[in-house]
């Protein structure tokens, strides 16, 4: 088949079948250019074309680096000012492909090339059919049938032979060369019908393969069409339609009912329901009003909105998703690395075997030359493992795109395969199992202080912090209209609390652990803490910090409650059903609170009072027993533990750029159920990849044996190869329908 590949090394010798997708290729390290040019390339359906592009770019000394995205049909070049887009486009043209700047006329080029290929394949098929009918019915002289076969060969080889010539010119043996040699060999031994059949089937397989890859590409490119290309920007008292590129941060746009929102921003006027499914995967529209955030690509409902833009079009959430999905396509999965390594050795070995079969028996055992040359030609057809090479990248791209549609961003095939193998999950409490919006529910006074005094001191210290519990304290003080100063000499104690100087005295706010370490707990305070914690609430202890001759004291206790997510219990149950053996909650909150929440939602084990480094130790412990472990957190506070896990999973990616950029997998919606969806799809992807690889290897092994024994023919070998390639592609594309 056509999708044979090459190593992207620095010499000119390539082996058919290696590297189905290419990442970054360093060409001329002496070039210091940082100008970036992105091209869409029409006709790049196979990694043979990747090697051809590398070959024509390398002599251009101004090009420092090139990134070739086979599955995306895109080439990104970094160069200096001696290289222009026109020079690059001219270089691409030398390979027989057409290119244009991103957003240019590639679609029309593709349509033109597709029509020509369809015409050539159609002529080849008709001529082959006429030749076979004449040959079988004996209605005409033999030369007439052979002429029909010749027309079939010329038409089918119209796009193949030029590629073969270009491959030979760069000393590469790709599938086009192998097919050309096989067809010429068949003609030389007067097997015109076989040569015509091989040519037609090979040309047809290339055409069908291009269609299949185009479908996978369209699935990714459909994400790009979610956001409109224009926006209604305020200009004086009117709103004028302008390209989104011209809308600045701070600009005011209007969005009519039923229209897609073109850019990220904040609603300043109007109320409406917004369908956020394209970004977050949420099935129900979300009500939006003044002050609410909206995202590019989401769909406005029945109301009209005026939106203040917060990000330029290249920095919107949907733009980041598209960019990361495209980048993820270049990251090879473990199974793909295995296939590339296998193909690197398989193809040359089979080519040597073909030469051995063709010449050794006639030379040394008086074998029939025509018979053994024919069998050698059959081996040439079998020499390139195209079904094997294409199976993994198409499966990975389909899986990544299917999850992106559901609001789950997975960064590459390696991560997708790892997600499918997860056997344990570690989860943070706040913002993962709970809503992450805690509020003060009760103030317990200890000693002679008043509620106002306690809240004034607590808010004065917590106003320095972005921690959810600290923010809850500040919000409560403001709601109660309790004035508070900004503490001095603020100091945070990670995993414990904080301290600061208020009106000349040093006070602290913190958790149970912090109070113990300061030595200010009493039996009565312990009793009250136990009651709060057993009610699944967190505690903020406010007190006078010990210093000098002052022993310190607890002034009050703040009970802080956080609502458990509505579907958390159901999500944990689904995770268990699909084979996740263990779900562990790791939290810096007190053990009683963590245990109470874990019991309510069905989590297997809960560990509280953890510092960030202790969370890492627990993740490592899980890795030892379960091998594949996911850590779910907010993408910021839990970053170290997420990095230690097999897969770091961030919740609420739509609202935080950090989550999208740092996590291995980001849930654009705060829905724990999406993790189960991702694991299920990951396992399905791994299963499809394994089936495709096993099927391709088994078919190749079968036909190798049949070819040597003489039980197969050229046309049957190419038919089997064509069918196998199309089957594995179709099997992979099923992921898009899941």
Note down, in words, how this protein is organized.
This protein is an alpha+beta fold. It is built from 25 helices and 27 strands. Among the domains are: about 25-105, Alpha-Beta Plaits (2-Layer Sandwich), CATH 3.30.70.100; about 230-315, Distorted Sandwich (Calcium-transporting ATPase, cytoplasmic transduction domain A); about 440-560, 3-Layer(aba) Sandwich (Calcium-transporting ATPase, cytoplasmic domain N), CATH 3.40.1110.10. Helix content is about 50%, strand content about 20%. The strands form five sheets. It has a seven-stranded mixed β-sheet, sandwiched between helices. A six-stranded antiparallel β-sheet has the order 7-6-8-14-9-12, with no helix packed on it. A six-stranded antiparallel β-sheet has the order 17-22-21-20-19-18, with helices on both faces. Helix 10 (about 335-365) packs antiparallel against helix 11 and helix 24 (about 675-710) packs antiparallel against helix 25 (about 715-735). The radius of gyration is 33 Å and the shape is elongated.
């Amino acid at each position: 088949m056509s999708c044979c590949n090459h190593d992207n090394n620095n010499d000119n010798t390539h082996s058919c079948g290696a590297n189905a997708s290419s990442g970054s290729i360093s060409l001329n390290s002496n070039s210091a250019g940082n100008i970036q040019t992105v091209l869409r390339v029409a006709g790049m359906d196979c990694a043979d074309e990747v090697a051809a592009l590398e070959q024509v770019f390398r002599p251009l000394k101004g090009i420092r680096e090139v990134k070739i995205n086979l599955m995306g049909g895109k080439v990104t070049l970094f160069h200096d000012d001696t290289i222009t887009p026109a020079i690059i486009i001219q270089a691409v043209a030398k390979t027989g492909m057409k290119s244009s700047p991103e957003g240019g006329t590639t679609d029309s080029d593709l349509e033109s090339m597709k029509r020509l290929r369809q015409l050539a394949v159609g002529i080849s098929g008709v001529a082959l059919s006429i030749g076979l009918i004449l040959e079988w019915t004996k209605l005409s002289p033999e030369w007439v049938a052979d002429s029909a076969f010749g027309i079939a060969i010329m038409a089918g080889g119209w796009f193949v032979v030029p590629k073969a010539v270009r491959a030979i010119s760069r000393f590469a043996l790709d599938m086009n060369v192998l097919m050309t040699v096989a067809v010429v060999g068949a003609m030389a031994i007067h097997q015109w019908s076989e040569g015509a059949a091989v040519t037609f089937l090979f040309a047809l397989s290339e055409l069908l393969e291009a269609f299949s890859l185009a479908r996978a590409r369209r699935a990714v490119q459909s994400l790009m069409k979610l956001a409109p290309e224009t926006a209604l920007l305020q200009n004086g008292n009117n709103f004028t339609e302008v390209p989104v590129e011209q809308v600045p941060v701070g600009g005011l746009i209007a969005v009519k009912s039923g229209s897609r929102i073109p850019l990220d921003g904040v609603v300043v006027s109007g109320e409406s329901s917004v369908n956020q499914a394209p970004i977050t995967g949420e099935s129900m529209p979300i009500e939006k009003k003044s002050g609410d955030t909206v995202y590019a690509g989401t769909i406005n409902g029945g109301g009209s909105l005026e939106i203040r833009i917060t990000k330029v079009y290249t920095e919107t959430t949907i733009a980041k998703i598209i960019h990361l999905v495209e980048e993820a396509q270049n990251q090879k999965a473990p199974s793909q690395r295995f296939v590339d390594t296998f193909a690197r050795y398989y193809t040359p070995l089979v080519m040597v075997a073909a030469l051995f079969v063709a010449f050794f028996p006639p030379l040394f055992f008086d074998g029939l030359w025509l018979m053994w040359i024919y069998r050698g030609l059959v081996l040439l057809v079998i020499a390139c493992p195209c079904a094997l090479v294409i199976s993994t990248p198409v499966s990975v791209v389909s899986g990544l795109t299917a999850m992106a549609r559901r609001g789950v961003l997975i960064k590459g095939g390696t991560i997708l395969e790892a997600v499918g193998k997860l056997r344990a999950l570690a989860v943070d409490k706040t913002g993962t199992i709970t809503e992450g919006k805690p509020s003060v529910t009760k103030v317990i006074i200890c000693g002679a202080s008043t509620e106002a005094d306690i809240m004034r001191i607590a808010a004065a210290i917590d106003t320095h912090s972005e921690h959810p519990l600290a923010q809850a304290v500040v919000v409560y003080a403001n709601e109660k209209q309790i004035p508070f100063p900004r503490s001095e000499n603020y100091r945070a104690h990670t995993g414990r609390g904080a301290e600061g100087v208020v009106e000349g005295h040093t006070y602290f706010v913190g958790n149970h652990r912090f109070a113990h370490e300061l030595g200010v707990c009493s039996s009565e305070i312990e009793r009250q803490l136990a009651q709060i914690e057993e009610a699944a609430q967190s505690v903020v202890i406010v007190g006078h910090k010990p210093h000098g001759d002052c022993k310190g004291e607890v002034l009050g206790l703040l009970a802080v409650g956080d609502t458990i997510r509505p579907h958390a219990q159901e999500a944990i149950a689904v995770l268990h059903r699909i084979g996740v053996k263990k779900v562990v909650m790791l939290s810096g909150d007190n053990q009683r609170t963590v245990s109470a929440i874990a019991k309510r939602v069905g989590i297997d084990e809960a560990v509280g009072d953890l510092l960030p480094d202790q969370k890492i130790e627990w993740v490592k412990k899980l890795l030892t027993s379960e091998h594949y472990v996911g850590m779910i957190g907010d993408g910021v506070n839990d970053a170290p533990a997420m990095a230690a896990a097999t897969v770091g999973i961030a919740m609420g990616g739509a609202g935080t750029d950090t989550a999208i950029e740092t996590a291995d997998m980001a849930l654009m919606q705060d829905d724990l159920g999406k993790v189960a969806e991702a694991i299920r799809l990951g396992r399905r992807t791994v299963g499809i990849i394994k089936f495709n690889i096993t099927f391709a290897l088994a078919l190749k092994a079968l036909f190798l044996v049949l070819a040597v024994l003489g039980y197969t023919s050229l046309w049957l070998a190419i038919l089997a190869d064509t069918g196998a390639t199309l089957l594995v592609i179709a099997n992979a594309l099923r992921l898009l329908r899941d």
